[in-house]
Amino acid sequence: MKNCFIKISLYAAFIFLITNCAVSKKTNTITALKKASFSEEIDIYVPKSKSERKTFFKNSDREKNWVDSIYNKMSSREKIGQLYMISAYSNKDSVHENEVNAIIEEYKVGGILFFQGGPMRQAKLTNVYQSKSDVPLFIAIDAEWGLSMRLDSTYRYPWNMTLGAIEDLSLIEKVGKNMGNENKRMGIHFNFAPVLDINTNPKNPIIGNRSFGEDKTNVSDKAIAYMKGVQGQGVFSTGKHFPGHGDTAADSHHTLPLVDFSKERIDLVELYPYKRIFDEGLVSVMVGHLEIPSLDPRKNLPSSASYNVVTNLLQKQLGFDGLIFTDGLAMKGATDFLGPGDLELAVIHAGNDILLGPVDVKAGFEKLETAYKNGILTEERLAHSVKKILRYKYKAGLNKYKPIALENLVQDINPSENDALHYKLYENAISVLKNEKKILPIKNLDQKIAYVKLGDDVNSTFVTTLKKYTEVTEISNPNIDSLNTELKKYNTVIIGFHKLNKTWEKQNFTETELLWLQKIAKHNKVILDIFTKPYSLLPINNFDDIEGLVVSYQNSDISQVVSAELLFGAIEAKGKLPVSINSSFHINEGLSTKKLNRLGFTTPENEGMNPLILSKIDAIAQKAIDGKMAPGMQVLVARKGNVILQKSYGYHTYDNTTKVSNSDLYDVASISKMISTLPNVMQLYDQNKVNLDTKLKKMVPLFSKTNKENINFKDLLTHYAGLQAWIPFYKATLDTENKPLEKYYHKIADSQFSTKVADGLFIRKDYHDTIMKIIANSPLSIKREYKYSDFTFIILKEYLERKTKKKLEVLSQKNFYSSLGMNNTLYNPLEKFDKNGIAPTEVDNYFRRQVVQGYVHDMAAAMEGGIAGHAGIFSNAMDVAKMMQLFLQKGNYGNKQYFSEKTFDAFNTSYYSSEGVHRGLGFDKRIGKDGSTCACVSESSFGHTGFTGNIAWVDPETEIVYVFLSNRTYPEVSSEGNKLSKEKIREDIQQIIQEAIVK
């Protein structure tokens, strides 16, 4: 029989609802039915014939022969023992272990269900328990979101509710595949998942996030994909809780829930996923403890003990011939019905194959043994289940059992690829439900943004990631009115609702939080981002005052990173709501948002990089620190628009008191040329205010009638103009004891001495003119040759300020930093930041006579008040990477065009490469032995280095941005020279980055 869907009109569905559900005792379940199942059309699934069903585990003559040979040798006790799967823990003491061993040896049980513990302990116990059993044991685990549901030191995948928001089924299958591999490595044969319950009751106390949602088609699609992934690895999936625990108001662990629906409704809704997944090859089913009067009218009878449910419905009507487990027999939903022994006999008579976690093995076993001897439990019935169990033991490879190899076990079940998948899952799951006036993504980074936390769980990763995009201020106040007063200063308020990432924890807003949310939203432009189940939105009756609403589903580190990315447009929104929220939001709602080309964050694997190779960077960084080449550093690598590595190493100084953090600022020295002066010049070039042939005398009239008047723009920026490399301007301002002359410096600022050089040191405000005259009158090289010179960018600053009538620091902030979100990039950082967040560059005993921290290291730039065209910028690796990404994207970032692609190409051209000059206009393009890069980058690559121990480099061919910042000049420039350069630390790291590219 072919698989088909029959579409029934809404009118027919309405008639069905009236005729079949009018007798329901629960009005809330009728409402849920309307929402979940009766949309415009209804799908009725017609199952395939058994011969058409898919199978993951083929039958064979060898299997039959093995099963028969084992079965025929078994005593009745051994056969009965195969029906048992007992509970075990790896976090308990030797008393528990001995008890389990004794049960295995005495009752010849067929399997072990592991609960809480750890992977290595469980693996060792598995080997021990297997050694005690003549017929190898089934090993099972209830690990719906991965082994971490039960075991420490293992990976935690998202809940099913989160996965239910994902449209890409290949990702769900990948989750199953990963879980299957982890289970297999642990010697586990059954994972009691997927959950097939359709959570049509939002108040369900036990299913909730364990369900893929409240839409039967979505639940089925996700469960099938999940099952394919697991069983494709040779591990058995177990669908549960048959026939459906989704629309209940009670927890079967504590009582017997009532499912009070008609047979027709159950067939149409609850059984829908089972019909579909059986056709796709599901191996096993777990029968729930549920009272279902329409299927079996006996009062207080759990479905697990119902012949009508387990045999007539599951096996005969639905044609399921796989293994059938009871739900845990220690649950109150079962034990309140019958005591030990009677319960086991009842569920076996009902048609179950495996007795899961009974309370009293001895009592149950004796009851079954007596029933067998008295003919109540027949040989035929016993053979039916035991031979089925043995068949699946053969399919699991237990005919050739091997103990679990313990070496590298923990590493094997925690592959780095898991995080890569985790990022993709949240990129596809996070759902945008409201986006008034296109508040998302946040495009304007010039505005003032506040963040307010609600909820009682951690939020640090979210806030840290938000701040990587722009300046976000955390606001808190115990008084709501005072809080709202503070928020008046901000254009947008992001409210993060963070709840503990545990399935059964309460995750609702408190009454106070709901009131605060209402008041904040009424007076502010608000984006609400909830890091918990979507049902937490149910108490909110009106969403009118909330402009942006995002459901991030869980409060994990990765969900917080990805959610922040979405808010700022690094990714687009793709998720679809798997449940409905009253009448406000319906199943499958989810708005798409625009992706802006801003840097995002992911794992190396997701951008084709090998994390194991990248990890070698750690050793090189440590080598630099140990060798006193730099006390600390920041390293950032981005590829294809995503940061894949951002780490800090070492300390600010060698006394190891202040650790380097990713947010700390470094003096980037000559990288200032590339990320401050140069982009402003590129904009003027883009506006045709200067060209390659423009003469210096036209750009800066001071140079008219000097030996530099005819230097053109192209030669100036390629360092091919014959300018001197550098002049130590400061020396002319010191006395014979190398102390600042009072003629030039005062210790206290006044109207004439207002340019601050360092703490307690102010230079004459007109000394800038002296510096420019010295440059204008300096000699040129006699021979036309490449010579790197700071003068180029000192001159360009003069040109920019003259042309625009604005100061360089204003230009950079206005034209670039504000809109790029480079809020940690600036001159004179002590005006904004605390000194403790800035790495010192030197203990100066020759000019400023103090520790240089928060003041520019370069002496000439210091004499310019910390603001020069060639030096003075302080920044961190993240901010520098933004500008480098803008260059990589040829002038575009955040979907804003700062200058044309044509302009970028002009500046990234080596005009004199035929003469051995590998410089663009302002960009260094030297690679290999003649430059500061490895020989492994492409000729189209570009960047710059900095004297204090920095490099920022881009390779367009591999789409890699590499930033390395350090304070190698602290405490002083070594008499041995630049050891960081001599040892090629920056180059070796760059080499590793290139080698990490997966070919």
Give an overview of the whole structure.
This protein is an alpha/beta fold and 999 residues long. 35% of the residues lie in helices and 14% in strands. The chain contains 35 helices and 32 strands. It has an eight-stranded parallel beta sheet. Strands 11-16-15-14-12-13 form a six-stranded mixed beta sheet, with helices on both faces. Helix 6 (119-131) links the parallel strand 4 (111-114) and strand 5. Helix 18 (417-429) packs across helix 22 (557-567) and helix 20 runs parallel beside helix 21. The radius of gyration is 35 Å and the shape is elongated. Residues 1-41 have low confidence and may be disordered.
Globally, the shape reads: elongated
How far from one another are the termini?
Answer: 47 Å
Helix % is 25-40%
Work out the strand percent: 5-15%
Number of beta strands: 32
Return the structural class: alpha/beta
Count of helix runs: 35
Oligomer: single chain
Radius of gyration: 35 Å
What is the topology, as strand order, of the major beta sheet? 9-8-7-6-5-4-3-10
Q: Which residues form runs of ≥5 with pLDDT under 50?
A: 1-41
Largest sheet: 8 strands, parallel
Average pLDDT: 94
